UniProtKB/TrEMBL annotation:
A GO MF label: metal ion binding
Keywords in alphabetical order: Hydrolase, Magnesium, Membrane, Metal-binding, Transmembrane, Transmembrane helix
Source organism of this protein record: Corynebacterium canis
PANTHER family: PHOSPHATASE RV3661-RELATED, PHOSPHOSERINE PHOSPHATASE
Keyword Protease listed: no
Protein name (database record): HAD family hydrolase
Length: 258
């Protein structure tokens, strides 16, 4: 069957657009339970996650997080990371998915638009989240794998202008009309992604993106309803130090703001 030409697509950023947290930092506790990282590293990831949820990441902070995580996973078996992500997604990510995002994805599907997740997080972590949402097309950061293990090298960093490049390539392959397409993101770092389509939408925008969206007359939406699909019933020993360090992180953040 010849694919329909000039059809619209809907491109979604992932973190703070579809889910209320950083997908790259979300699996720290699970990596700890599987013996891949130390408790100290797990706590560092937990604090970084909290700060991200409060203030987001600048372009420089995203690069620093990428470098830290890529260095951390060097030598890990790629299939082990994929397995952990698959087995724990309901516990780690599903409770943080915005109900509004799920409804919007369903809306685009009802209109027969292809839905694409475009994320700076690694492909192996994004893929199970996409499947949870029934999304089959992904553009994400690609890490080099040799003999089944991550080498610590980044083949493609899906951030900023690279997101727009990935979208244009997907449009070429799948016959999308970007002028009729939609893009959703929370960050000014994703301005190239938003500018690549005819209908850009700022979702939970940071201050820079909110200002740009207001100046250009773009739609601004606020998603605030992450729906827990599975209630928390299990206590883990790591909970107390995570809470303690989170309080310290929040205090430090508030003091820096003052």
């Amino acid at each position: 069957m010849t694919p329909r030409a000039n059809r619209p697509a809907a491109f979604f950023d992932l973190d703070k657009t579809i889910i209320a947290r950083s997908s790259a930092l979300a699996f720290g506790r699970e990596f700890l339970h599987n013996g891949l990282i130390t408790p100290v590293t797990a706590l560092q990831l937990g604090v970084a996650q909290t700060l991200y949820r409060i203030s987001g990441h600048s372009s420089e902070q995203m690069d620093a997080t990428r470098d830290h995580l890529v260095s951390m996973v060097a030598g890990w078996e790629a299939r082990t990371v994929s397995r952990i992500a698959e087995e724990t997604i309901h516990r780690v990510v599903s409770p943080a998915i915005y109900a509004e995002a799920k409804e919007l994805i369903a809306h685009h599907k009802a209109l027969h638009h292809d839905v694409v997740i475009v994320s700076a997080s690694g492909y192996d972590l994004v893929a199970p989240i996409a499947r949870e949402l029934g999304v089959t097309r992904i553009a994400a950061t690609q890490l080099e794998v040799h003999d089944g293990r991550y080498t610590g090298e980044v083949l493609f960093y899906c951030k900023g202008a690279a997101k727009a490049e990935a979208m244009r390539e997907l449009a070429r392959v799948h016959h999308y009309d970007l002028a009729r397409s939609f893009a959703y993101s929370d960050s000014a770092v994703d301005l190239p992604m938003l500018e690549a389509v005819g209908t850009p939408v700022a979702v939970n925008p940071d201050r820079a993106l909110r200002r740009i969206a207001a100046d250009r007359g773009w739609d601004i939406r606020v998603f605030r309803n992450p729906v827990p699909l599975f209630p928390r019933t299990r206590y883990t020993p790591i909970a107390i130090p995570v809470v303690a360090l989170t309080v310290l992180a929040l205090t430090a953040f508030a003091w820096r703001r003052r």
